[in-house]
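ARCHIVE RECORD
Type: protein–small molecule complex
Small molecule: protoporphyrin IX containing FE
Source of inputs: curated submission
Record status: active
Notes field left blank by submitter.
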Amino acid sequence: KRPRLPPGPWRLPVVGNLHQVGANPHLTLRALAERHGPLMFLQLGSIPTVVISSAHVAQEAFRAHDLAFAGRPALYSVERISYGLRDVSFAPYGEYWRQARKVFMVELLSAKRVRSFRSVREREVASLVASIRRLAPSSSSSPIDLSRMVVSVTNAVTCRAAFGDRYEAAGGGRLHRVLEEMQSVLGGFCAGDIFPWLRWIHALDGLRARVERVFGELDDIYSQVIEEHLRGDCTSEHGDLVQVLLRLREDPTQRNTFGSMDQIKGLLTDIFTAGTETSAATIIWTMTELLRNPRVMARAQKEVRDAAGKKGAVEETDLHDLPFLKWVINESLRLHPPAPLLLPRETTEACTVGGYEIPAGTRVFVNAKVIGTDPANWSNPQEFRPERFSSGGDVRWGECFEFVPFGVGRRSCPGINFALAVVELVLANLLHCFDWEARLGKGEELDVEEAFGMVVHRKRPLCLVAKPYEYGKAIF
Ligand code: HEM
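STRUCTURE (tokenized, with ligand):
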């Protein structure tokens, strides 16, 4: 007997289940899964879709059929900005993806390479602390927009790792603006991704023009940076990604894969889309939860201040002594995974999960947020309680299906080391150098309202009063 599709809600003609998903899919999909189960079938416009909402189903799907789930859909905005999917994140599963991911892993994201960017991180974090001091010289200063400042730091760290010292020459400010606009065109569902035959509509609704504008500006910046590297004007002490990619062009074994400039540019875009907003959102959600939980804030600050002592700043070598801070970050990633539905997958072949058929070409969402707050695996799941990570040692990312903020299987995030290095250093310094206060009305609590996008941020920026801490005077 032919297996059936997984259960799911009734669908309307043409739109299918689209009207039930709405503008906040990570929330509506939770409610739908509660009714229809942890393996659910939806028809989103013309796209057959499966949503996985439990650790148990994720484990069964990815242990037995990792390859079948290793594809990605070709999304409208991503296709153009990644130079025709010449990236890692959205490249179709195959040889190009494998080679490109290997280059990322070895040349940019390995533990050794991440360590080599230490001075980049320390410099950018020092500059963040100095900016906050300038804006908030005393405890009676006005609140500062921490969300904005944190995105600038994560952008700057990624830009320096990718471009080396040419980052400022590339016009740091202009690049930030373009990257912001890029995140906005990539955010959310667009009609052309749900009804591929409707892609023409983006000529009318303005999306095509926005994508073209961002693409043009990015291309301009990349061309300038690559040109300077080719002229030999680049002297970064740690070696940067552009240098590495240009060297690969000279290598006869790699030339076929990385021969064209478009390939280099596609990979650069990937680093910015995958790496900056995700890390910034993690920092901001962690600060949000610390402010909502003064007991946890006090313990985290004590740990950091004990480790750094009278030093004006926390250095990377101090981070080894901060186990509590690491649990705090894990707890934040559990409650607020920046990519709550991971990145969409598309099945490369048909497979059977839990006795149900998943046809080839099905779009797949894994609901990391629901999995991380499933009462079957987490006690009092909505409570922010970092101590729950105290037993069992470090999390083994990718092997623990109850906690998947970085995804699962062969397409899981390769940037974990790179991300956590900057997230930990920024947070440690924010906690060491300042005391923080959210100026709220009587009885009011700091909110956790979300704005949906490929990366889920706070709906409103995190604006806080920063009170300089006594030992924080001599920064670095
Ligand atoms: C806290 C920060 C981060 C979070 C929460 C995060 C999360 C994720 C998630 C959920 C995925 C999709 C995984 C899947 O489909 O199973 C992903 C993929 C990816 N991430 Fe990250 N990420 C972060 C930081 C970074 C950084 C800093 C980089 C690089 C500089 C990076 C590079 C990538 C790439 C290239 C992919 C695509 C992998 C592939 O398709 O083979 N990420 N990330």
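CURATOR ANNOTATION: The domain at 18-468 is CATH 1.10.630.10 (Cytochrome p450).
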